Every structure is written in structure tokens, then in C-alpha cells.
Amino acid sequence: MNNLSGEIPSDLLASPNLEYVDLSHNRLGGAIPTNLSIGLQSLRLSENLLSGIIPTSIGKLSQLANLELDNNNLYSEIPSQLWNCSNLELLDLSSNALYGELPKDIGNLQKLEVLALQTNNLSGEIPVEMHELESLYRLNLQHNKFYGSILDSINGLQILIEVHLGSNYFNGSIPSSLGGNVPDSLSLLHNLGELVLSYNNLSGVLPLFSPRVNVVTVGNKNLIIPNGSAESNSPGNGVYDITDSSKRKIQVALVPIRPEMVFMI
């Protein structure tokens, strides 16, 4: 952090030999320049005071692997051109005021490893094309306005380590592929330690999970926890009724946890 302030000069990021830019953790304001070096591989403008739109010219950066625009005041849709950046490995647009829906073209980012879009005003259903992101191991969509059936589009992503989908409007039942007596999908997620299903509109019966998975079901009043899922009133292993800060009665299923993986819905 250098405490830089003011606006980014319009031609600062345009040098044809520029490959890596890190102006994060400053007090830079104004708009993101539209004139960008075609050779950019990493653009980090996180934690500034930038406002306005994400420029469509980012879509021309064919070598871009790392784009971090999080924790600013950006207010726009995510430009469709961005999904042309097929070499992206890390995309962090979190904590802005972005709106609109995720398009089918998100499936173009097949090298993407980390997608962080949390704390925006994004809406719509998660496109099924997301299952084409076979390199994705960290996904955070929490604190948005996404809705629809849960996890249909990310069901086949076998190397996921962290998934955060809480505080949206997902509904329907939990897919049997997440649990059941023979959890085929979970058997591929060898480090799974925690599944958080908090504050959505999920219904149906909670599938049976491996004893090593910690399951939390806060804020899903129509979700049924089977009696045989765990022993109640046993520290570290059970189903509990507790009261949160707003005096609502909530139910939490707890079983022993391994810390390697966090799966939040």
C-alpha cells in the first residue's frame, strides 16, 4: 500500500511492453482506463475507490491470466467481452455493485481456477455451462441475488475445494449426488470437511453424509434432517436446536470436521 490517490492516468496502462500491474491497496478513484496494453497478463486494482464500469477493452487482453478488481465501487454489468479472456486463471470482482446475470459464455474460461463474485447484486440462475470450468477449485457467489435449483451447474466440477453460495435465493431439494447412502460425487472430493447450507430456501430431506463431514443447515426451515444422521447432544457429533441473535430457532447438524475443505451453500 502506497497511499496513492487521484485517478489513474488514461495512458498509464497502455504501454505495449506492460505485462504486470499491481496498484492494489491504494486510494485511486475515477474510472478504470479503457486503453490497456494488449500484453497484460496480470491486472490488480483491488481495494481502491474506483467507480464506473468495467471497460469492454479488457476482452481484448488475450494473455490476461489474473484480473482483480475487488473491493471498489464499480457499478455495471460484467461486460460480455470479458468472457473472451480464455486464459484467465483468477477472476475476482467481489465487493462491488455489479448487477446482471452470468452468461453461458462463462464456459469459455476453461483455465479458470478461482472465481470470486461475492457481495454484489448479481442475479439469475447459475448457467449450466459453469460445469465446463474443469480447473475451478474455488468458487464464491455468496451475498448476491442468484436463484433457482442448487448446484445443477457445478455438479461435475471434481476438484472444487471451496464453494460459497450462502445468502442467495436458491431453492429446491439438495441433489442426491451431494449425499445419499452412496455419495458418488463426494467420493471424488477427498478433502471435503464442511458443508454449509445457510440462508437459502432449500427443502426435502438432508442426505446422509460421511461421518467426517460437518453439515450446517441454518435458515432453511423446510429442510428435514433425518433422525439417523447423527446423535444429538454429543459434542462435535449431532443435530442441535440453537437460537441465533434474532431469537429464531435454527437447527444445525454437526459431525467431526476436517479443515482441508469448506463447502458453503
Q: Segments where pLDDT lies below 50 for 5+ residues?
A: 176-188, 228-265
Largest beta-sheet characterization: 10 strands, parallel
Provide the structure class: mainly beta
Top-tier CATH class: Alpha Beta
Helix content: under 10%
Describe the protein's architecture and organization:
The structure is a single chain. With 265 residues, the protein is mostly beta strands. It has a single domain (5-192), classed as Ribonuclease Inhibitor (Leucine-rich repeat, LRR (right-handed beta-alpha superhelix)). It has 1 helix and 22 strands. The chain has one helix at residues 184-187; strands at residues 5-7, 20-22, 27-30, 42-44, 49-52, 66-68, 73-74, 90-92, 99-101, 114-116, 121-124, 138-140, 145-149, 162-164, 169-173, 192-196, 201-205, 214-216, 222-224, 238-243, 249-254, 261-264. Strands 2-4-6-8-10-12-14-22-16-18 form a 10-stranded parallel β-sheet, with no helix packed on it. A 6-stranded parallel β-sheet has the order 9-11-13-15-17-19, with no helix packed on it. The longest helix is centred in the C-terminal third of the chain and has 4 residues, at 184-187. The chain is elongated. Mean pLDDT is 77; it is low at 176-188 and 228-265.
What is this structure's SSE topology?
Layout: E1 5-7, E2 20-22, E3 27-30, E4 42-44, E5 49-52, E6 66-68, E7 73-74, E8 90-92, E9 99-101, E10 114-116, E11 121-124, E12 138-140, E13 145-149, E14 162-164, E15 169-173, H1 184-187, E16 192-196, E17 201-205, E18 214-216, E19 222-224, E20 238-243, E21 249-254, E22 261-264
InterPro entries: Leu-rich_rpt, LRR_dom_sf, RLP_Defense
Keywords: Kinase, Leucine-rich repeat, Receptor, Repeat, Transferase
Pfam families: LRR_1 (PF00560), LRR_8 (PF13855)
